[in-house]
Amino acid sequence: MEDFKWKPDQLRIDPSRPLYEQFVEQLRADIARGVLAPGTRLPSVRELAAAIRVNPTTVMKTYQELERHQLIVTYRGQGTFVTKDEGIIQQSKQALAVHALQKLREVAESLDMTVEELLKLAGYKGGTSK
Prior knowledge:
Layout: H1 19-33, E1 41-42, H2 45-52, H3 56-68, E2 72-75, E3 79-82, H4 86-110, H5 115-121
Antiparallel strand pairs: 1-3, 2-3
Helix pairs in contact: 1-3, 1-4, 2-3
């Protein structure tokens, strides 16, 4: 089990949105991608707040939201960990994919196009693009 290290230069911040929402999104994506493996120990609220130079309340709200989604669990006296429940992680990954597809549909509709037309216009040929 490896410890979580999140450096301030790794953060992508949008000043128009609450920080905790952005941190939740970034951590959810890291968990979905496997960057944060199941069982990874997260720093305490105070440790992470100091490391990324934000108010501890911001980190606390981030952790509370991730716990609400069951992506992290806190054990009194032991710390906070990424869930080991692969089913929860897969559900979160699916929810992220649905959200991304909704955003793509919104962009296509704003251009009076279908998703397929938008993808074709963008030069997308299908298959994987990793």
